[in-house]
Specification:
Elements: H1 2-15, E1 34-37, E2 41-42, E3 47-52, E4 58-66, E5 75-80, E6 84-87, E7 93-103, E8 115-119, H2 124-157
Keywords: Membrane, Signal, Transmembrane, Transmembrane helix
Signal peptide: 1-22
InterPro entries: Ig-like_fold (IPR013783)
Amino acid sequence: MKQRLVSLLCLLLLATPGVLLAVPGVALAVPEPSLSTTTELARAGNYQLRWGHESPMVQSYRLERADNPLFTNSVVVYEGADRATVISGRGDGVLHYRVRAQFADGNVTEWSETTSVTVQHHPLTQAFLLFALGALVFVATTLLIITGNRSHQREQASPR
């Protein structure tokens, strides 16, 4: 009788959604956090990452970055309770990100789906061309103001 009761209780625990046997540090059978980026192509080298989890019981998040989708050489970018960060100053290349949530009891979720961002700065020739064009507009505007001012002064000085 006692064995049947224990078996029935175990079966009930396994069959009831949302009831988990907590083992600290072990990935839970709950959905992984979501992870998104403001852009998949960052031309200026900066972008924002946002993440979150449906459970209000999340204590902290761990965000990792890698230069390959297998995360063989991942680096921890952020660890804490925030749900977004701005990344800036990155060089050209493809960067992969993933996040996992940790609960107060020490359990963690599986890793989120990978989000990738390609950083591809504008070509240096384009920057110099725009700089030269801006300098040309500045010089032309300055000359126009100087010649207009001189012309106005001559009109004021000449008798009518």
